[in-house]
Specification:
The protein is of the alpha+beta class. The chain has twelve helices and six strands. The chain has two domains: 3-73 and 166-284, no CATH class; 87-159, no CATH class.
């Protein structure tokens, strides 16, 4: 049993509620030049592509996923995770989950559809498909107004979405703490929690440190930017709702949102939860046992 698994079990016990379920995913980055373990490589599917939202959710359900430039299903996530240059003007090769939705919804001839490039995401063109005149980038048919009302607003929003650039990563591994054949220490840990569980985690952190948890959340790129890259680069906890892709593609439940920890702070929160148990009686919270 690895350290990640032990910490996960300690965290669940600290809630003091039987059969509590908190879907949890570990995220491990591999930079270009790093040696990638064989047990990681064998989880790189060459037959299907997955978004980072799907990979995170799959990992929480004990289905490990290794994403590379070849099998990542979302161009925006490839940018955020440092797998592709954000200014690349050529589309990524092959079909991708996210752009396949565009293709199916496009009013253009399906054979003429050309997926957007990373550059078009970065410039706000994709996220403001109506205003930019690129209706072929819509996700919800011809009446789709886009994720932002203008290209300028979309570009400004994208510039505030934290990303690993230049692109220095060769792959990102998503895995559950309960996998017996994986004994890796993640860089980031994501918990998919209900509001009542989020409250208890915040209380534990504040009990020990006296500090508040500041949340930075946006409308898109929530899992890859807000919940993976932001904690990874800032070494701070972040909380965010799940975005349209996470809700509609990865099918995150209505009562869940994400809280993400750099691994060192995940270890800390487990300790804080255990030490603060008698100050915050979670089992008595309405809904704690449901």
């Amino acid at each position: 049993m690895g350290e990640f698994n032990q910490l996960y079990n300690q965290l669940l016990s600290a809630f003091e509620v039987k059969e509590i379920t908190i879907p949890t995913s570990g995220v491990k980055f591999f930079k270009k030049g790093d040696t990638v373990p064989e047990e990681v490589l064998e989880n790189a599917s060459s037959e299907v592509t997955l978004t980072s939202c799907q990979a995170t959710r799959s990992a929480s359900l004990e289905d490990a996923v290794y994403l590379t430039i070849h099998n990542i299903g979302c161009i925006a996530a490839a940018i955020s995770l440092g797998l592709v240059d954000q200014n690349q003007k050529e589309p990524l090769e092959g079909p991708r989950v996210y752009t396949n939705i565009m293709k199916e919804q496009s009013i253009l001839d399906k054979h003429k559809f050309k997926p957007p490039s990373p550059h078009e995401f970065t410039e706000g063109i994709v996220y403001s498909c109506q205003n930019s005149g690129h209706s072929e980038y819509a996700l919800f048919g011809k009446e789709d107004v886009g994720r932002f009302r203008s290209v300028e607003i979309a570009k400004n929003a994208v510039s505030d979405m934290i990303a690993i650039q230049p692109a220095i990563m060769q792959g990102v591994f998503f895995f559950s703490p309960t996998l017996e054949n994986i004994n890796l220490v993640p860089d980031v840990v994501i918990l998919s929690v209900r509001p009542v569980e989020l409250a208890r985690l915040v209380q534990a952190y504040s009990w020990y440190t006296g500090k508040r948890i500041n949340s930075s959340m946006g409308a898109v790129r929530v899992v890859n930017s807000d919940l993976i890259v932001r904690p990874y680069l800032t070494n701070e906890i972040n909380v965010s709702t799940y975005c349209v892709g996470a809700r509609l593609i990865a099918q995150y439940e209505a009562d869940r949102l994400g809280i993400a920890f750099p691994y060192n702070l995940f270890k800390d929160i487990v300790e804080y939860m255990e030490l603060s148990r008698k100050g915050y009686p979670f089992p008595n919270y309405p809904g704690a046992t449901s």
